[in-house]
Amino acid sequence: MINKLKLLLIGATVFQQDNTEKLTAKGLVVDYVQEFSQWFSKVIWATTLSKEKPHTRTIIDENKVVPCILKAKAWGWLADYFKLQHLIDRQTVIFLYLPNVWLVPVVLALRRRAKGFFVYVANDYVQHSERSRKTRGWVYSYLYKLAHELPIRLADGVVVRGKLNFERAKQLNRNVIETVPIGLNTVLYKRTKEPCSGNLIRILYVGKLVEGKGVEVLLQAFSELCRRLRNKQLLLTIVGTGSKEGEIKKMCHDLDITDMVKFLGFVDDKSLLSWLYAEADMLVVVPSTYPEGVPRVINEALLHGTPVIASALEGIQRQFTRGEVIFIRPGDAQDIANVIERLISDAKFRLKTLKAIALCYKKTGTWKSAAEQHKSFIIQTIEKEDKRRKFYEDAKYVERVHSTSFYRKINNPWLVELLKKRMVLELGCGASPQDHLGRDYIGVDISQKALEKGKGKGKRVQADITLLPFRDNSIDAVLTIAVLEHIPEPERVLQEVVRVLRPGGVAVHQDAWNVPLWRPLGLKIKRYSELSFCHRILKLLLPILESLPVRSLRIIPKRIIREILFVMRRWEFDYKQIKPNYNLPEVSDADACNSIDSHAVLLFYKANGFKVVKPKDSFLRRLLIRGYIVVQK
User: Fold this and answer.
1) Residue 364's pLDDT is what?
2) Is this structure's pTM higher than 0.85?
3) pLDDT (average), residues 451-455
4) 419, 471 Cβ separation under 8 angstroms
5) CA spacing 20 to 30 A to 155: which of 359, 379, 551, 597?
6) Maximum distance among all Cα pairs of the chain, rounded to whole angstroms
7) Is the CB of residue 207 less than 8 Å from the CB of residue 295?
8) d(Cα 561, Cα 91) in Å, to the nearest integer?
């Protein structure tokens, strides 16, 4: 158990009820969720109750997990909100599993009450959104994509399945990890023979029997194989259930392959599932229209040394690149039949595939389970944020910032006049607020001690400046002084500035631009005797490295490249991340989390339709900019 944190896990699968009205769910998912109880003081699992005929057998242990049934529909928003509100406090971490389109607004409304907010993404939401445009219209398509990308942007951390989702999430959030599969990660039954080496060929399908999964395509291919390979005994085992099960069984009858197709229904027994993989000669994953992410059954089959034939969908292709998976055209029965026949008949091709599979699983994983990996990610993120918040409450830090109030004070007549008749919102005001500016003044900071030390004119609000408690288009002017470099994800602050500023409002940034990567080392206050040899050399060279000519040589070429990419519409907001040192509260910028350039901030605002006020908006002026910048919405 760690830090008395509670975990509210939303989604992952649905609940069902057995004959005794006890809640059940998929065994592998139940194991995954219940494992969290080792590390969290309380685990709450909130999801919907399925009205379908129950097929899951694993009963949820309410000594480990507190189940909570949600409606997860538009008409149930209010009920779900109040139900979850009672479960959340400042020690609760929310872990939302997407897709959960109807629950996203509820969870986003509640995230401010929680200790942390994390998101899990496994499906190919981009492909699903694009395909649904044709069937459900552009409104659903847009909202479906937004219901994924908005939580990803706002989350403290994102867990994704597959390299494709990892690349997408990284564009929206810096704190992303790729998960190990939530599924069967242990071989309970070892393979006793080489795949396709006997007369009996077992073909396995594991998945839902629903529209778009392509099981009917597999049946057509299997029927064709039965005609081609009369010298082999073929057996197709289908594991799973769904709304199309009756139609699929009827199709088997129509194709005259009923005796060679075995339906096992949903298998919730890990031992039986492992035996099926170990005995199968191949696994076939054939979604013809369904936009899969990376099905866990592929990893489970490969773990058992079973060849996998899968549709050439982007997510699967990006994940398996070393020949361990054989790809076929989605929805093409002839292609499936040809590949299966080749795998059975061509020993050379089969050996090459088996070698690729063996190489794929030669390295042992770092994590014993997905739950352990996710726990570590959540705890590390929370502890890092707690350490940051504790630093800003440190008396030494507060006193140092307060002592520099005179030097930080803005007295530029032009700026004072610009802000004179405006409501000024200062982000990260700390213990040295600029409360002499503006008609009205609001200072926001994460540190309560700093706010108390800097009491004065106007209002003070303790809040995270990446989640401002102000309405859209409600502020006349936003000001930051030496703040952006201390934020792990400064783009989130800038996005909030864009949101809260009124049309015609101004943003003034006078931050510590291009903080050197060595600043957190505290070289300026440490003696040479305290430093390693390399750090001694670095300290000796500091006057040269931090001189204006050398800094210009380091910064201006990057600005030129940035301008070119901006014109080509290929630029993305950029900055360098720095590992902050929270053990040196007396050193200025030792706690810097990033090295950000004022030029990048200017281009961010230009990309959002802002007018550049200071410096004058010309290529040369932007290239040589130093000091503060001013932009207008």
Assistant:
1) 46
2) no
3) 88
4) no
5) 597
6) 93
7) yes
8) 45
Q: What is the DSSP string of 156-192?
A: SEEEESSHHHHHHHHTT-S-EEEPPPSS--S-SS---
- Sign (positive/negative) of CA torsion 439, 444, 445, 451? positive
DSSP 8-class letter at 524: T
The total of other beta-carbon atoms located within 10 Å of residue 389's CB is 14
The token pair at 231 is 């010298």
pLDDT of residue 115: 92
Instruction: Tell me what pLDDT residue 630 has.
Output: 96
Angle subtended at Cα 275 by Cα 269 and Cα 279, rounded to the nearest 5 degrees: 150
User: Terminus-to-terminus CA distance in the chain, angstroms?
Assistant: 48
Closest CA relative to residue 290, chosen from 135, 72, 148, 119: 135
> What is the rounded CA–CA span in Å between residue 165 and residue 167?
5
- The answer to whether residues 242 and 274 touch, using CB atoms and an 8 Å cutoff, is no
Q: Per-residue pLDDT tens for 30-74?
A: 999 999 999 999 999 999 999 888 889 899 999 999 999 998 787
Sole residue written with tokens 């057509």: 220
CA-nearest of 90, 84, 108 to 9 is: 84
Neighbours of 108 (CB within 10 A): 17
Here the tokens at position 620 are: 């040369």
What is d(CA 488, CA 389) in angstroms, rounded to the nearest whole number?
A: 12
Is residue 291 within 8 Å of residue 276, measured between CB atoms?
no
Res 561: pLDDT: 96
Q: Look at the block and give the residue holding tokens 């390299």.
A: 163
* DSSP codes of every residue in 429-470: -TTS--TTSSSEEEEEES-HHHHHHT--SSEEEE--TTS--S
Position of tokens 């030390």? 453
User: Using one digit for the tens of pLDDT, what is the confidence trace for 175-204?
Assistant: 999 999 998 888 899 988 889 888 999 999
| Assigned token pair, 240 | 């799973």
Residue 583 backbone phi and psi in degrees, to 5: -100, 5
* Contact present, 333 and 217 (Cβ < 8 Å): yes
Q: Specify the residue for token string 């060595």.
A: 518
Tokens of 81: 């909100």
pLDDT of 289 over the 80 cut:
no
Q: How far is CA 42 from the centre of its chain?
A: 23
Q: Which amino acid is at 622?
A: R
Residue 108 DSSP class: H
- Tell me the C-alpha distance between 510 and 146, whole Å: 33
* Cβ contact 122:374 at 8 Å: no
| Neighbouring residues of 12: CB distance < 8 A, sequence distance ≥ 6 | 29, 32, 33, 45, 47, 97, 120, 182
Quick count: other Cβ atoms within 10 Å of Cβ 562? 21
